[in-house]
């Protein structure tokens, strides 16, 4: 995935959100929606930005069974995406759901 060059200015929060959204839509199958819920400027050399995103995808069980539904049944998946200072994706992973104790 190519990211725009930011030679004149430092990338903004909006630029980081757009990069994360575009990356997840391109990288994951059958994405219906991506909500970027948090973006943090870390400023370190390794990872300059960290973003949390919720991705809405079709339910895999319903798809594998070939069931027809009136409306799509979507599951939420949370991801953490790390970007460098030029908004290149340097890593991403699923975020485990927090359990209530």
Unreliable spans are: none
Mean pLDDT: 88
Going across the major beta sheet, what is the strand order?
1-2-3-4
Count every beta strand, where a strand is a DSSP E run of 2 or more residues: 4
Main pleated sheet: 4 strands, antiparallel
Strand content: 25-35%
Q: Estimate nothing, just give the exact number of structural domains.
A: 1
Amino- and carboxy-terminal Cα gap = 40 Å
Structural class estimated from helices and strands: alpha+beta
Order of helices and strands: HEEHEE
Q: What's the helix count?
A: 2
Computed CA radius of gyration, to the nearest angstrom: 16 Å
Helicity range of the residues? 10-25%
The global form is elongated
Write the layout of secondary structure elements.
Blueprint: H1 13-27, E1 33-41, E2 49-58, H2 60-65, E3 74-83, E4 89-94
Antiparallel strand pairs: 1-2, 2-3, 3-4
Give a short synopsis of this structure.
The protein has 101 residues and is α+β, with helices and mostly antiparallel strands. It contains 2 helices and 4 strands; from the N terminus they run H-E-E-H-E-E. It has one domain (13-94).
Give short descriptive properties of this protein.
4-stranded antiparallel β-sheet, alpha+beta, single chain, 2 helices, 101 residues
Q: Can you walk me through this structure?
A:
With 101 residues, the protein is α+β, with helices and mostly antiparallel strands. It has one domain. It has 2 helices and 4 strands. It has helices at residues 13-27, 60-65; strands spanning 33-41, 49-58, 74-83, 89-94. A hairpin with a 7-residue loop joins strand 1 (33-41) and strand 2. The radius of gyration is 16 Å and the shape is elongated. The termini are far apart. The mean pLDDT is 88.
